[in-house]
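Narrative of activities, Objective 1.

The group set out to show that a structural description can be obtained from nothing but a protein's sequence at a throughput compatible with the screening campaign. Below is one input-output pair from the validation batch, recorded exactly as produced.
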Amino acid sequence: MNIIDKYIEEALIFNDDDMKYKFEDWVSGKNKVLLVVGYAGSGKTTLGKELAKKHNVKYKTTDEDKIPGLDELWENLKKKHPDTFTTGSAIDTYSDEANEMFLKYAGPIVYKYINQIRTPTIWEGIHLLWWLTPEQFSKFSVLVKGTSHITSTTRAIKRNLKRNEGNEKNLPWYKLAWWTMSDNIKIQPTYNKLVRYLKDKK
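Output recorded for this entry:
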């Protein structure tokens, strides 16, 4: 695969169509949960809220709605491994080592919780890409935003600079922009892996 084909296939520069996986199963009520994922700034929240209103279902986001057990897991890991868990929280980890350790135990908790939902619900958030494996995603209905990496990142930077989002430390604008960009850089391999897996499953 040459670099141009790679950029098109992985939606790095050019926008792609939103991918719908088992979407009709969710609309019909066969599946109770629709997971909406994509890069930061891709339009997940806007789409998720529109669909929730259209279909009159619950809307949840990993930014605001806590999944039981994750905070407790984080605190327990901090106590056991204080040198590794020095920054971050249950939804924002900044150390690769902490990330890897947290996700090892977080995934089953998140999967079990979502799998027990019995009322029609939309769960939206970039964190789902960190918490769930492609195999776990495939058990639910999924909508992957096709907004490209560069478009999403540009939107997210503009949004976060405007809101001063996540800037508890009063960072200069260029550091806040990099903080925003790093989320999409870190999530890119996982995003691509999920898209390829769901395409193969369809």
